[in-house]
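Record filed here:
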Amino acid sequence: MVLLRGFYRLTRLQKTVLVAAIIMTSFFVGRMVYSQRLERHQRVVKDVDDALKSPIGDELDGEIENHHRHAKEALKMAGLVGGRPKRGPPGRMKHLPPDHREPFVDHDAAAHSHHGDENGNDGKTATEKQPAPTQPVEEKGKAPVADPKLAGDSGKPRLQAVSVNERQQKVIDMYRHAWKGYKAHAWGHDELKPISHQSSEWFGLGLTLVDSLDTMWIMGLKEEFKEARDWVANSLNVDQSRDVNLFETTIRVLGGLLSTYHMSQDDVFLAKARDLGDRLFSAFSSSSSIPFSDVNLHTRRAHGPKWSPESSTAEVTTIQLEFRYLSHITGDNKYKDAVDKCMDSVQGLPRPDNLVHMMINPNSGQFRPGTLTLGARADSYYEYLLKQWLQTGKTEGKFRDWYVASMAGVEKRLMRRSAPGNLLFVGEEKNGGQYYPKMDHLVCFLPGLLALGAVNGIERERHMNQAKEILHTCHEMYARMPTKLSPELVHFNLAGGGDDIQVHPKDKHNLLRPETVESYFILYRLTGDKKYQDWGWEMVDAFEKHCRVDGGGYTSISDSTNKDNVQPRDKMESFFLGETLKYLFLLFSDDNELVPLDKYVFNTEAHPLPIYTP
């Protein structure tokens, strides 16, 4: 009552000021309480998120998800937020497809010890702690609806194996054996010479290490990945006065960095990829839209190879997936525009039945008429036609049309059957129309490509049958050799009266190539036929018998036709770890959601890149 009487004695102005002060005080007190409640509830959600990201998250999925849902519902009921707050730097938000990232799972069983400094760690690796994978957020656009033949029932993709079976564990053991030799004798160098315990250098970019980063991630090799990540952060130097090949550096190094950035969301890989991409971009300085084959990383001066002014057609048309994805995640369209213009220019050239010649001149922008082949110098041109269509969610129909037309040309001009076994194969046509019944091991990528196109609606039955038949031929290239390892290329008998497959002396070598097991993986994933797993296991057995080097590493061999004297070449290609072992590991998995084929497209070096809608 006293306060009320006092209030009535105040003047009108004094009453107004007092009421305003009370209102403002109430507002600020309420705001403070609101902020405290918001902070408390958001802390609950963060704790649940952290639990979900921990290695035990899979075991507690159901219980944690319930707590997570209840916490968010409590926030909404309290009227504090409309949903879960976004996390991470704003610049990353559009780059991560939902549910594509998950915790790093280490499959290091007690029975399989790791190899430490006693195996030759030269001290170049850093001890910086590996950043934890970040929470998945929206990527620009939406991925296509999962095809049940491409992915599992739930459609939720995984980039790392949750568990491994006996065959997969064997592949992990093979990887660790190879890594042991590389770490001991070639750390930071391009490739290992496993017999002489030396290294070999090509581009000076740690090819073996960078090429296999995503292999380690998929296998869950936590310790090895951290070693490699630290080397990339502290020792990978892309500013060298050294000529590198645009194609090989793009598919192995740029592709490996981009794939690993997508999986780990570690900005170290993105920064290196963009720096490297800018230097390689200098190749597009020719007088046409066709890039030069070689670039000096320091001076950024591009030129043709020393022995020719020309680039191979595969070199200039198998960099598109990587440069287009680099534009997608950086927002800088210059990379995409350059490779798109190159591809459009190639399509504008005369092509017999939509098949390309092997060589093209960057200055004139014209083909040099020559061999029509799906082997070396032309192979991955055809691969990237289909994969560019898939990469952007089937939104760019021109790539599909180009692919369909080229496969019709392959069937018309290059496919034949051997005698007497009726094996379907893809040969070559020399300039002038002469047919040559020779098939490179490189061509064994084709069955996987045909099958991938078939399940995406392209000549479903016809192309799938062709894929199965050609892959059977590729398997015969292994099974008919005494070592059970394919030679680099074979010739087929068209006349009968002898063996279907013939091997010339200069073609007997085996380089641990991945193309056949790549197609085994894709055909198994799409058909479920376990014979492809069994064929892959035969390959593992042959590698172990004839290529494994005591002390670490695997070697290519000079003679696949002589099991008693394979003549080791003392060379372990980077693609053995980056491709061959990765595809073997995925082949032996029965988890269709481990790098699902409707969410990812593999570049020609087996680096998975996410499908997105531009």
